[in-house]
Amino acid sequence: MAVLNHYEQKFEELIEGIVNHDFGVCDSFLPEDFARALRLQLLSEFEQNKFSPASIGQGNHQRQHLEIRNDCILWIEPDSSNKLEREFLDLVNNFIQYLNRSCFTGLQHFEFHYACYPKGSFYRKHVDSFVNDKSRQFSLIVYLNPDWTEDDGGQLKLYLKDKTVEILPLLGRAVCFPSHLIPHEVLSAQNNRLSITGWLKK
Ligand code: OGA
Ligand code: MN
User: Fold this and answer.
1) So what CATH class is 6-53+68-201?
2) Residue with CA closest to ligand 1 atom 8
3) What is the pTM of this model?
């Protein structure tokens, strides 16, 4: 049997979770140094005021609804030449190829953004696919928060068929689930909560 490298093992963990209970979570998806470097990159872009308040909806129907979500985001250019972002996007591409080979998912595209939830912010219960655009197949979130505890809040709460689960946004951790299937919310964060969130698309 082929020996799996670090990322292939992590891909397997995520896929196994999705197959067995509709979502996958795995720790150290990003090696610690890589996660810390992406965190610094996010913070540097944030300090240059490149982030915007996130909206909901799509196309001409995008609106800010601060009572629904009040995080700030910055889209990562798909052809970014920044070394770290390139490394992250190459990783996403590898995950897409892995899913397509092992699960015949037919994924072709992706979109990812940095997200910052300042203290007190949240994202109320929602699903990630749009009414008129079903291209988002899987949601993938990686967290960039060292030293995060229960007291810091900001859990990702997933509404599964028969129960809910709450996931802390710990540095290097990844969560993946089918975008149309799982309603979820981000509980109020008591500290700045940093992540990269995106979608694997058809
Ligand atoms: C989103 C989202 C979850 C998280 O951006 O759509 O649900 O844990 N994010 O950041
Ligand atoms: Mn979401």
Assistant:
1) mainly beta
2) 156
3) 0.97
